[in-house]
From TrEMBL:
Domain called TauD/TfdA-like: residue spans: 40-279
Classification via InterPro entries: AtsK-like, TauD-like_sf, TauD/TfdA-like
Cofactors named for this entry: Fe(2+)
Name listed for the protein in its UniProt record: TauD/TfdA family dioxygenase
GO cellular component: cytoplasm
Length: 324
């Protein structure tokens, strides 16, 4: 099924999430040319509307360079740096290398960088080297997952808050490279409380804001936290809520980090797989009761995302402060 806008064609690739965008050459559409001041604002609005509706957009065969990927991501807002702890591509402070070499693979469901107060609004991934089989990226619609919840469970989820952290009980590292990567990843530690149900700031949709960095529930013990999070996560990762992106060289994928999770299965052996990631700075998540995310442990992440320094007063649970 496909639809058209004045600027491009949209072809759905999943029942509940995902669309391919055809008819847009990003290498020219996002480059300033003589007599213009940049990309067409109408095109940017149309792409953003498509992102809100489909959650994940795939642009095939674009073959952008690093600078063009940065320009494209910048259409959707101010950028973060590459990562709060992991180094960027040399000379490219906004670009995170995603390299599956030496067993360094994020093969778990997650939303990018939810362990800080203001996780990214959107993520872009660009394929540089892809294996001949495997190495896909799965993206899940957390709004559809929320709608799937039975009403009693949905009412419970509306009230829950989860603590997200980058430092938790990982599996034993496979080798020294993985151990070193983990050491760098956790060289600074954050714990942040986010609403389990986040209200999307643009669409108003409610989605389950959990994933791999969500390790416990506020006010609930460890065992019950794990059980409840496992139940809720199971709705996110139902097959009907997932689109599988089979990479080809030169592809670019844009997904809404506020209402999706993603997973890169470790199913391509020793074959090389290399992507570059650029993320757009996000805002402070808001729950169904209007309360906003707050820091539990760790300093701010202003070195990573400009949004984190915008409201430094939100460093503690406002409800807890009022009760103190």
């Amino acid at each position: 099924m496909s639809s058209s806008t004045p600027g491009f064609d949209i072809r759905r690739i999943g029942g509940r999430i995902g669309a391919e965008i055809h008819g847009v050459d990003l290498s020219t559409e996002i480059t300033e040319t003589a007599g213009t001041t940049g990309p067409d604002p109408a095109l940017v609005r149309e792409l953003n509307a498509a992102l809100l509706e489909h959650k994940a957009l795939v642009f095939r065969g674009q073959h952008l360079d690093d600078a063009a990927q940065v320009r494209f991501a910048s259409l959707f807002g101010e950028l973060t740096t590459a990562h709060p702890t992991v180094p960027s591509v040399e000379g490219q402070p906004n670009i995170l290398p995603v390299d599956g070499g030496e067993g360094i693979r994020a093969n778990h469901w997650h939303t990018d960088v939810t362990f800080v107060r203001t996780p990214p609004k959107a993520s872009t991934l660009r394929s540089l080297v892809v294996p001949p089989y495997g190495g896909n990226t799965l993206i899940a619609n957390s709004a559809a997952a929320y709608q799937d919840l039975p009403e009693p469970l949905r009412e419970l989820a509306d009230k829950l808050w989860a603590v997200h952290t980058n430092d938790y009980d990982y599996a034993a590292p496979k080798n020294e490279a993985v151990a070193e990567h983990r050491k760098v990843f956790t060289s600074r530690r954050w714990k942040t409380a986010h609403p389990v149900v986040r209200v999307h700031p643009e669409s108003g949709e409610r989605g389950l804001f959990i994933g791999g960095f969500a390790q416990s529930l506020v006010g609930i013990g460890p065992a019950d936290s794990r059980d409840l999070l496992r139940i809720l996560q199971g709705y996110v990762t139902r097959p009907e809520n997932i689109v599988r992106v089979a990479w080809q060289p030169g592809d670019l994928v844009l997904f809404d980090n506020r209402i999706t999770q993603h997973y890169a299965p470790d199913d391509y052996g020793d074959l090389p797989r290399r992507l570059h990631r650029v993320t757009v700075a996000g805002d402070l998540p808001v729950g169904t009761d209007g309360r906003r995310s707050y820091a539990v442990e760790g300093d701010d992440a202003a070195h990573y995302t400009p949004a984190d320094s915008a409201d430094t007063a939100d460093t503690a649970d406002p409800a807890a402060s009022a009760a103190a």
